[in-house]
Amino acid sequence: MPVDDAQEQKEGARTRAAAADQPDADSERLGLVINDTIGKRLQAHYRALADEPLPDRFMVLLAQLRAKELKP
Amino acid sequence: MTLPVPSGLRTASDLFRDGLIAEMPNLRAFAISLCGNVHQADDLVQDTLLKAWSNADNFEAGTNLRAWLFTILRNTYYSIYRRRGREVQDSDGVYAKRIATAAPQESAVEMQEFRIALTKLSEEHREALLLVGASGFSYEEAAEVCGVAVGTVKSRVNRARAKLAELLGIDGPGDLGSGPMSDAVVKRFDSGSLI
Fold first, then answer.
1. What is the pTM of this model?
2. Which of A10, A30, A34, A71 to mutate to test the interface with B (most CBs of B within 10 A)?
3. Domain ranges, residue B47
4. Residues of A numbered 26-65 whose beta carbons fall under 8 angstroms of chain B's beta carbons: which are they?
5. Which of A69, B72, B92, B160 is the most core-located residue (most Cβ within 10 A)?
6. Which CATH number does the domain housing residue B141 bear?
7. Helix A25-50 to helix B94-102 angle, to the nearest 10 degrees?
8. In this predicted complex, what is the ipTM?
């Protein structure tokens, strides 16, 4: 998998920036409060997507790949 | 190269395939949430499946298949898809429509609001929130998938939550339920299994 060097460098810089910016105890506490509502909505959003029927083409692809593999 | 096996016995290839199939709904939900476009997300999942199959030899059986697949999907997205530009951003409204119809009527508006708010986060905040809060990864696993430090993931999740709270107007105890449910959520947060 090719890794974008520029992206990696950016990430490194962000990592350092993030480490210098940890939330204090009060905002952490508020975070827990917010989490309840946000977390539930996030999971409802995600579940709705994951529960959708999958497009046929995924299974078609796997069947094709498998057929190719079994060919002598 | 593949020897015939007695029926009822699963080969390593069968097991790998079963694993891919089991992860498809989760991969797709993540892909749609990340790119905000159903057609692009389906292409992305298809590419991920193809790459996973071609690189199956690099996957160590018994290790975390989900994390391996999400890493492939994410790298594919950032190296190819994002460069295609954002002009295809749900141009046909398929994503919006599906979300709206998938939810029970009374929460459809809330879901729609949430979806829009989610698209307003930066990609790195959005993906961190999704991985930890919905896709079922620990902070450590999410850090590995994203190739960053655990502290960075925590910080991104916190910022994503703060931004969503701001966008959705959730700003304090007024929007809170209390009681066993909230306590349970807080406990799960402490153990790292929830955002």
1. 0.72
2. A34
3. 11-84
4. 27, 30-52, 54-55, 57-59, 61-62, 65
5. B160
6. 1.10.10.10
7. 90
8. 0.77
